[in-house]
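Methods — Computational structure assignment.
A single polypeptide chain was analysed. Its primary sequence is given first, followed by the predicted tertiary structure written as structure tokens.
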Amino acid sequence: MLAAERRNIILQLLNEEGRVQAADLSVRLGTCEDTIRRDLRALDAEGSLQRVHGGALMRSPAEARFSDRQRMVSAEKLEIAQKAAQLIEPAMVVFLSGGTTNAQLASLLPKNFMATIITNNPAVAVALTDHTQIDLILVGGRVLKRTMVSVGVETVDMLRTMRADMCMLGVCSVHAEVGLSIPDQEEVAVQQAMIANAAEVVALVSQSKLNTASHFHVADIEEVNTIVTEASAPNEVLQPYRDLEIEIIK
């Protein structure tokens, strides 16, 4: 079997099963594990999957630049943002992390809504410009242009001095075993600070990000209290999170 054929089969199996193991692929494809590992490395390098110990997981489609994702805000993302906005109660202090869904969420809050929003996402700050009753804190630092968030020591130090009732995470990848992961290492410490200093953590996750992994680990899935996803997300995909007693809002 040619390498291209073998790799297409690997991707097909990954799409169908959500995870592949090198040892299992070796048996199913009738080749040695070293060959399979080379295939997985090649597919990882081209961005088709995410290698993990012993095999591979699907890679999140959310690794595109912020500007590209912002131009492609879907009805499903808007649906998630609308549902998540309903979780924010008046007078709450809320962390809003990066991501286009959080920017949509901010724009959906009523103009007279009263709350404190703390964010490292400039798009959130722009969306809240006309919300006169919202106390807006834009956490400073160096801007990571690919994802349009502030990162670095200054950002993390500021967040460590703050306490929030809720953290709304725009998450790149969520997996019941791997946890939360993102493609940019510099953003890891920022999201970890938000999670550590929030009473409740809500992950805003489109269906395409469920059961995927990215390069840098943020937190174990047990850190998440609630997942908000679109109504069309299959129950069988969500069941592993329910089994961990995570609230699912569709």
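Note: The chain has ten helices and 16 strands.
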